[in-house]
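Exercise 7. Given the encoded structure of a 318-residue chain, write a plausible sequence.
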């Protein structure tokens, strides 16, 4: 009788381990399929960049793989955020630290990690610091629209907005344009805040993955061009959108790198105290808004001396 009980306990333990393993597989890599090609049909330039050839192995950034979704229980997260924006000694390490801080507002979180999302925050008259972060960008696209009154930070999943798991293109109007005008419940549209942003000091930024073998050519260049035009249509008096590309990593194979390094991170910061009030980073690149919006001019973007820096931004596709 005792042997039967022990055998039953052993069987139940093995069954629990097996079920847990299968749940992890479904959670982190459902329907994983290697894409034949993730670049668009239009040829890019052969600029010196990430190496030639097509990006044939990278898995698409998707909600199912928990891309761009931070772990709120991570031990390395910190509550302490500097009160005054000062120049960080190492931009990459600073971006890692702040995007992991518990008080940082996450564009993608447990509430909205199964869909495209957006954060809108008023900063005019705000008497406390504000940090808005995005982590794990590995094929997704982000839109940041900011001025001295407010910031709008949107995130578009790659496989929901650009190309599905079967490599079939998703039309711009059906997803991204609809989100820009209508948003979702709990996620504002850009259109509903056009009165705040439709002025000459407003700076729109688009962060998007680049084609392998180039420095600035977006993977989904047709969609990005349409996104630029739609932002300009909604905000005709704002500045021209700046397109900043990044090197997309594989959301599964490079998961450890995405968690530990600055790759795939974006950060907007506001502080009411001088000397700096606003700052925007993509990975280790400072996008140059720290001088403020009053004169309507960006400072020259700068990156810290670290490996694999993002290429500089441009206002035109190349």
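Solution.
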């Amino acid at each position: 009788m005792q042997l039967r009980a022990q055998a039953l306990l052993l069987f139940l333990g093995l069954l629990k381990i097996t079920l847990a393993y299968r749940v992890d597989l479904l959670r982190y890599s459902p329907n994983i399929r290697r894409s034949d090609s993730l670049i668009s049909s239009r040829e890019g330039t052969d600029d010196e960049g990430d190496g030639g050839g097509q990006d044939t192995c990278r898995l698409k950034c998707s909600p199912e793989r928990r891309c761009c979704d931070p772990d709120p229980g991570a031990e390395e997260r910190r509550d302490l955020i500097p009160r005054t924006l000062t120049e960080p000694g190492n931009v990459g390490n600073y971006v890692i630290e702040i995007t992991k801080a518990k008080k940082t507002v996450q564009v993608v979180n447990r509430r909205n990690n199964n869909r495209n999302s957006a954060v809108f925050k008023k900063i005019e008259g705000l008497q406390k610091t504000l940090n808005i972060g995005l982590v794990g960008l590995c094929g997704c696209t982000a839109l940041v629209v900011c001025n001295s009154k407010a910031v709008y930070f949107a995130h578009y999943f790659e496989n929901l907005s650009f190309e599905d798991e079967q490599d079939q293109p998703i039309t711009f109007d059906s997803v991204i344009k609809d989100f820009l005008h209508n948003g979702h419940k709990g996620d504002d549209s850009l259109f509903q805040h056009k009165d705040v942003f439709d002025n000459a000091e407003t700076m729109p930024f688009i962060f998007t993955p680049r084609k392998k073998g180039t420095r600035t050519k977006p993977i989904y260049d047709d969609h990005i061009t349409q996104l630029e035009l739609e932002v300009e249509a909604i905000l005709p008096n704002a500045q021209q959108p700046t397109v900043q590309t990044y090197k997309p990593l594989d959301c599964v194979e490079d998961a450890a790198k995405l968690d530990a390094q600055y790759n795939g991170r974006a950060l907007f910061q506001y502080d009411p105290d001088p000397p700096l009030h606003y700052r925007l980073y993509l990975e280790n690149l400072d996008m140059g808004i720290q001088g403020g919006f009053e004169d309507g001019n960006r400072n020259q973007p700068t990156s810290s001396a670290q490996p694999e820096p993002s290429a500089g931004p441009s206002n035109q596709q190349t």
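Remark. The two ends are 76 Å apart (CA to CA). Students should compare their own answers with the one above.
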